[in-house]
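Box S2. Input/output pair 1.
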Amino acid sequence: MRFHSGVPEFPFLLRYIAFGALTRGKQSAFDHKYFSKRHFPATGGSEFAYQLDTSMAAIRIRHNAIDTTLDQLLESSDTLTFLMIRDGKIVYERNYGQADTSTPLLNFSVTKTMVASLIALAIHDGLINRINDPIGDYLQDIPDFVKRRTIQSLMDMETGIRYTTHRKPSSDMIKMWFHRDIRSLLKNLQPSEENDMFLYNDLHLHLLMYLLEQLVGDVSDYFYRKLWQPLSPESDAFWGLDSSSSGFLKGDGGFVASARDLARFGLLYLNNGVSNGKQILPFEWCNAMGKKGNSRMDKEYFDLYRQKGHAWYNQCFVNERTWYRNFWWQIDQGKERNDFFAMGILGQFVYVSPSTNTVVVRQGNSWGLDGWWPGILEKVVNG
């Protein structure tokens, strides 16, 4: 039996209990130490230039009816790193606690945008014909109702596959986080009662990672060779696995990287797929981010979150300014190309603002505030 910092890879219940005991039930940006990982070495990329904006620290932010500064907010919100890059240069940088902007940290659902980028590359390489193809055109050993789902619908988090999120071992969320063989679980998925609505569902990521496995073989190698290495990362990165024996990449939230290297990823999208003078991701794919198109923003589409009493509904969906497409959150600002962002459960962000030529990365050890980080980041970036 293999252990990682005291947590065994199996059996499932022992892994779940050991993880809960060692972490005291609190998720952390350092939780990757409890899982097997793939390693992606740094390439010694050039460091960012600095053009510090000393006025940033004193930016006034109204939060919970209290006026505060950006510095004060970050200090009080369990933030580990905060990095702002404008016009390709660092204008503001803060580090707290056990990390700095070169420390690899677990980024949870920011991982989803890495998966989205791999899908874009697979389409560009001719391995996937169209994003609107049913996933059953490529996978045969999954339930029939899942085969009918298009790749696009999975990437937009449309309902159709059951996904329970309570914290007990019987929930789909917990099973997928702690099971040592995620592939085996994909053969027994169940339909949901809801249709044509938004439901944030990590199972979609596992299905798409399984799809990528069938198309490219070693997804780790494909990721590093086609996407990560060309960014010239300055720190080592990692990607968590379900177990050492299975070797399945945790596409829902297992990617580990530093703030500076996440900023490089954000700049890749800001610059329409170009990094270090080379076209890494397709121009059309990156340039479409922040463009509204026909994506739904109406609160009825997000009504499951009202029914659950989920904080996202009042913080985000009720204003009908937010849409979700290709695993990126996007904000309607009435611009040709609006701000968009990747978001992790503990307040990990890669926030991209095309109109101000800015990328912001925030990594935290918890969400850290009673409020909506994207609204704060929008204000910080746009003034």
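Box S3. Input/output pair 2.
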Amino acid sequence: MENTGLRIEKLTVSVASRKVLKDVSLDVSKGEVVALIGPNGSGKTSLAFTVMGHPNYKVENGRILLHGEDITSLKPHERAYKGIFLVFQSPPDIGGLPVGMFLQEMTTKRGIEASINDINNALLEVGLSDHYLSRNLYEGFSGGEKKRLEFAQALLFKPQILILDELDSGLDIEGVRLLTGKTRELAGSGVGVLYISHNIAALRLLRPNRVVVMMNGGVVAVDGLEILDVIEEKGYQGLV
């Protein structure tokens, strides 16, 4: 099995005939954290949805590889079963379904044995008490609580590639510290992480291995943490 868990090669993607990604290439190796940043509308979330196989995102050119296997034509659930998990920027509301029941059903569908105790432990790891088990999924949850619950799913599913879309949005500083720390722990266990964010302070806590910058649907820079200093001083336009 190749060390490069996720590889995106020269990907061009359109939505309703409008190009949203242009010749994008990047890779995320096992145990690596890659930060993906850029201004609004730069294509970050479009890339996440394309990797997950969202049907609205049409791949015109290029391919997506997982451990060397071309998964470009696979359906979303097939990619999920192969070990890719996305924590959404805005998780959907699903009314009337208790959190504990939802997590048990989702783990069962993925062939994962998870008891209520396992689920409760995952909730505790992200700072949610056991009373969340009986609450309806996302109903009345704050933005931060939704993100914590999404991350708990990642802990239960044990993905090979974890895509975090604006994980730090809606979290207070303690939540950011907790979940960036958990992200590093997952990477330490061999999970490849693509961390999408606008939050430079969160990225400094995260300490990604590499920072990839997108603008106008394409990659404009790849560097280490030092590129954050340039962005803080000059903005994204200072990179082009």
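Caption for Box S3: The chain is about 35% helix and 30% strand. The mean pLDDT is 92.
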